[in-house]
Amino acid sequence: MPVHQNRLLLLVASLSLAWSRWCEPALAETPAQAWHGEYAGSLPDPTGRPQWTGLQVVPQGKGEYLAVELAGGLPGNRWNMRDRQEAVGRAEGTPTLVLASPVRKYEVDGWQVRVTDLQGNPVGTLRRYFRSSQTLGTPPPAGAIVLFSGGPTSELKNAKITPEGLLQVGCETTRAYRDFCLHVEFRTPLMPEARSQARGNSGVYLQGRYEVQILDSFGLVSQNNDCGSLYKQRPPLLNMSFPPETWQSYEIDFRAARFDDQGKKTEPARLTVWHNGIKIHKNVELTGKTGAGAAEGPEPRPIKFQDHGDRVLYRNLWILEK
């Protein structure tokens, strides 16, 4: 087996074991930042037994908020991937946000959530957590090409850098690639008033043909156009989106479509994707190009970082060819 394939297999094996880690909270600067985010702790299940429980609080604009209670914990951290209960609430100019579901009330102060039943009887308390992908900051392995690390942009075309040294959307690689493993770190903006595809939209276009969607999909039930989706072809196995303004990561193991000498496709493109260290697509076949992607063909093409008009930012990009 070629040496570069050994390096790739070791990298992918290590990523398959990655898990989200917990971080201590930090002070917020705005009401939306003060409340929106992730919380977890022990609450009774329907039988009265203690159960670790996650809660995601999502700003909806104009003072409206959505909270999603998740049985077992947060996505990627013990949620049972089945049971979820939504609650809604509205900011009333007080230091706390109150939301209600059909069975519980939640009083959010930004550091914790006090949970009661509908009669006001205490049920439990959830603590706020800031999670971080274990693959953030992963250094490029030997033989990898660094696309962007905060310095030179010679591997990118139309690169624009913020004063903070972060990469803006709208660029593409100067080289064309066929089969590869790609590491991407990205951050979506907080856009409470926006909805759906207008909420922190970008995307990683593999070969300029196949889009792995980037979007603020925090707290949603993933569809085939949400974050982590193979655009309009397949939703992720699990919505691993962290809150907006949090750095997130993709690891993408891509094998290009194969064509015979007459230009007929003989094998579809395939890929495996990890989002924040959790596998969300496993050796998936792509049925063809996605969305506005270029037509399929045998020739390698550059990778594009889509400009959809939103202030999505990138850092620490590297690629290992196979």
Task: Write up what this structure looks like.
The protein has 322 residues and is mainly beta. It folds into two domains: 3-19 and 134-321, Jelly Rolls (Sandwich); 22-132, Lipocalin, CATH 2.40.128. Helix content is 6%, strand content 41%. It has helices spanning 3-16, 31-35; strands spanning 21-23, 37-44, 50-61, 64-71, 84-90, 97-100, 104-108, 112-117, 122-132, 145-148, 156-157, 167-168, 171-173, 180-187, 202-206, 210-214, 248-255, 258-259, 265-267, 270-275, 278-285, 304-305, 313-321. It has an eight-stranded antiparallel barrel with strand order 2-3-4-5-6-7-8-9. Strands 10, 12, 14, 17, 20, 21 and 23 form a seven-stranded antiparallel sheet that branches. A five-stranded antiparallel sheet has the order 11-13-22-15-16, with no helix packed on it. The longest helix has 14 residues, at 3-16.
* Structural Rg: 21 Å
The strand count comes to: 23
Given the C-alpha coordinates, what overall shape results? Answer: elongated
Provide the CATH topology of the largest domain: Jelly Rolls
Unreliable stretches covering 5 or more consecutive residues: 1-28
The residue-averaged pLDDT reads 91
Biggest sheet: strands, sense, closure? 8 strands, antiparallel, barrel
Q: What topology, given as strand order, has the largest sheet?
A: 2-3-4-5-6-7-8-9
Strand percentage? 35-45%
Count of the domains: 2
Q: For this structure, what is the CATH homologous superfamily of the largest domain?
A: Exo-inulinase, domain 1
Distance between the termini: 11 Å
CATH level 1 name of the largest domain: Mainly Beta
Level of helix content? under 10%
> What is the N-to-C order of secondary-structure elements (H for helix, E for strand)?
HEHEEEEEEEEEEEEEEEEEEEEEE
Structural class: mainly beta
Helix segment tally: 2
Q: Using the 3D structure, state the CATH architecture of the largest domain.
A: Sandwich
